[in-house]
Amino acid sequence: MKILRTISAARCAISDRIMITRGAKGKYPLDDENYYKTLVNISGPSTHNPKKIAKSFYAAYQHNMERITYIENMMNMLKEPSMLSKIYHRMFKK
User: Any residues with CB less than 8 A from the CB of 19 and at least 6 apart, and which?
Assistant: First the structure.
């Protein structure tokens, strides 16, 4: 599961950086300007310096890892039975 999480975060980071680079050049049709600005605030503006590219990619990767672990934690909470269902099963199971 960790490998899939890592691959998914890297893939999303690459797509985020592609969107930022194309959006800065004006080649990408931006429907939501707020989404683009949020991506730029998270991982940085478009750049051609290899060190800054690596730093921006790592920032986008870390953000996507946080998002994926948050979603996994939310899904794990939904897998556990709620208090109401536990009470219901204790009362009416017999």
Answer: 28, 36, 39
Q: For helices 33-43 and 2-25, what crossing angle results, to 10°?
A: 120
- The residue type found at 7 is I
Helices 50-79, 2-25: axis angle to 10 degrees equals 130
- Whether residue 60 contacts residue 17, with contact meaning beta carbons closer than 8 Å, is answered with yes
Q: Is pLDDT of 28 > 70? A: no
What pTM, to 2 d.p., does this model score? 0.76
CB-CB contact of 56 with 17 (8 Å): yes
**Hey, CA dihedral for 47, 11, 54, 44, is it positive or negative?**
positive
Q: With contact defined as beta carbons under 8 Å apart, do 44 and 55 qualify?
A: yes
Q: Is residue 41 within 8 Å of 67, Cβ to Cβ? A: no
